[in-house]
C-alpha cells in the first residue's frame, strides 16, 4: 500500500501478513509439471447430482434474494444430516448458512468478540482463523501443540487452561486440526466443555474435517454431542471438504437456541446470504452425498498410507501420522533455511509443491504440510520425486529428530 494511504487504513488490517501458502503456490501455479500438494482441497469434481441440482435451480430462475440465513429446506437437511451422522437433535432454526467455513468463522467471532477480547487457539493453526480474530478486534493467544519425537502430537489441556485470563472470551478448537492432523480425545473435549461452562467461556468448534478420520474410527465426535442447546458453543462447518465444493463457497454455523435472530442479522449484514441455486445444490449434497464422503475417505486413507510409509522409511524425516484431516505434517532435517525457504527449495528441486509450516504461525516454523486428498497414483508420484532427493540430505540420528 502506498505510504501516503497507510495512516488511513484500519489499524486492525494494516499489519495482516501475506498467506504463505499462496506465496509458494503463486511461484508455480501455471507449471503443469508440478505435483501440487500445497492447497487444502480434494482433487475430485463435485459429484454430478450436486452440480445438476445447481443447474436445474438456475434454469428454474432461483436467482433472487432469499432467506439470508438459509432456505428452510437446507436448514432441515442440515438438521437431518447431524442426526444421521452424530445422533444429535439440532433444531433447523439453529443453523445459519454461510459463505463457506471461512465466513462461518467470521460470523462466529463477530457474534462474541468485543475489542481486546482474547481467543485462545492451539497452534500451529489455520491462519485465516487468527486473522478473523484480529479483524474483529480480538487478540489471538496461541498455545503450542507438543510435537514428540515418536511422531505424536498432543495438546496439554492444563497449559491451555492456564492461558485463560479475565480478557479471554473463547477457545477456538479445530479438531481434527489443520495443519497438524491432531484430533482432540473425547475425554479432553468433555474436560474442555466443563471448564468453559464453569468459566463462562465460549467454545468455537471448527469441525470442517470431522469426517476425515482414518482406520474406521470416524466421524470425529462433535461438541454438539456433548453440549446442550444453551451452552456457549458455536460450531462452524463447510460443504467444501466433504463434497469437493471449495469453489461453491457454502458452509454453516450452529448457534445456541436464542441466538438465531442475531445470526440472521449477521447473515443479512455480512453477505445477505448464499446464492439460492448454490443452497439448492448444498441440500442435494446433504441428502444424497453420504456415499461420496465414504469414497473420498477411502481414497485419502490410501494416499495417506502411501505417503506415511514412504516418508517414515527415511531417517532424515519426522512425520506425524495424521489422526484426521487430509494433511500430513512433517519435518525434514538437513534442509537449510526457514520453512518457507525449504518449501521453495523442494518446489525448485523436486517439483513437488508443499505448504510451509510457518504459514500456520511461528509454532509451525520447523515443518512442512502436504495435502493428501489426492489420487493414490499422485501420492506415489510425489514420493518418487521426494524420496531420492531427501536421501541425498544428511542422515540424522533418531534421538536428534
Ligand atoms: C480449519 C479450517 N476451517 C475452515 C476452513 C474454511 O473452508 P471454506 O471457507 O473453504 O469452506 C478451512 C479451509 O481450508 C480450514 O482448513
What does this structure look like?
By secondary structure, this protein is α/β, with parallel strands linked by helices. The chain has 2 domains: 3-46 and 291-393, Aspartate Aminotransferase, domain 1 (Alpha-Beta Complex); 48-288, Aspartate Aminotransferase, domain 2. It is built from 14 helices and 15 strands. The chain has helices at 11-14, 20-28, 48-59, 72-86, 100-112, 127-135, 157-162, 186-199, 223-226, 260-270, 276-288, 290-312, 339-350, 376-391, and strands at residues 35-36, 95-98, 118-123, 139-144, 146-147, 153-154, 168-174, 202-206, 233-238, 251-254, 317-320, 327-332, 352-353, 355-356, 368-371. The strands form 4 sheets. The protein has a 7-stranded mixed sheet with strand order 2-10-9-8-7-3-4, sandwiched between helices. Strands 11-12-15-14 form a 4-stranded antiparallel sheet. Strands 1-13 form a two-stranded parallel ribbon. The longest helix has 23 residues, at 290-312. The mean pLDDT is 94. The structure holds pyridoxal-5'-phosphate.
